[in-house]
Amino acid sequence: MLRLVVDLNRCQGYAQCAFLAPDVFAMHGDEGLLYDPQAEEAQRERVAQAVAACPVQAILVDEADLAAAPSAPAAHTKGASDA
């Protein structure tokens, strides 16, 4: 079971989560987000994609669950040694 929390004050209704994980997230009207706070384990990959796609980073997965998820590749920033 994945434990999810969405900061509804931060959520702007972009609906990327509902598009990527429709069994967990759904839009209600133009801006209201509905979600299952205890998503099934089978939804882990889709939830991870939804978390990564949220433009305002409003979706949180319980840290114990995050530790079990495969880590996303880190963004590479160009430094002085890359020049």
Description of the structure:
The chain is 25% helix and 22% strand. The protein contains three helices and five strands, in the order E-H-E-E-E-H-E-H. The strands form two sheets. Strands 4-1-5 form a three-stranded antiparallel beta sheet. The chain has a two-stranded antiparallel sheet with strand order 2-3. The protein starts with a strand and ends in a 15-residue tail after the last helix. The protein is of the alpha+beta class. The longest helix has 10 residues, at 44-53. It has helices at residues 16-20, 44-53, 63-68, and strands at 2-6, 25-28, 32-35, 38-39, 59-61. Mean pLDDT is 83; it is low at 71-83.
Helix content: 25-40%
Quaternary status of these chains? single chain
User: Tell me, what's the shape?
Assistant: globular
- Biggest sheet architecture: 3 strands, antiparallel
Q: Count the strands?
A: 5
* Spans of at least 5 consecutive residues with low confidence: 71-83
**What number is the mean pLDDT?**
83
What are its keywords?
83 residues, alpha+beta, globular, three-stranded antiparallel beta sheet, two-stranded antiparallel ribbon
SSE topology sketch:
Elements: E1 2-6, H1 16-20, E2 25-28, E3 32-35, E4 38-39, H2 44-53, E5 59-61, H3 63-68
Antiparallel strand pairs: 1-4, 1-5, 2-3
Can you give me a brief rundown of this structure?
With 83 residues, the protein is α+β, with helices and mostly antiparallel strands. The chain has three helices and five strands, in the order E-H-E-E-E-H-E-H.
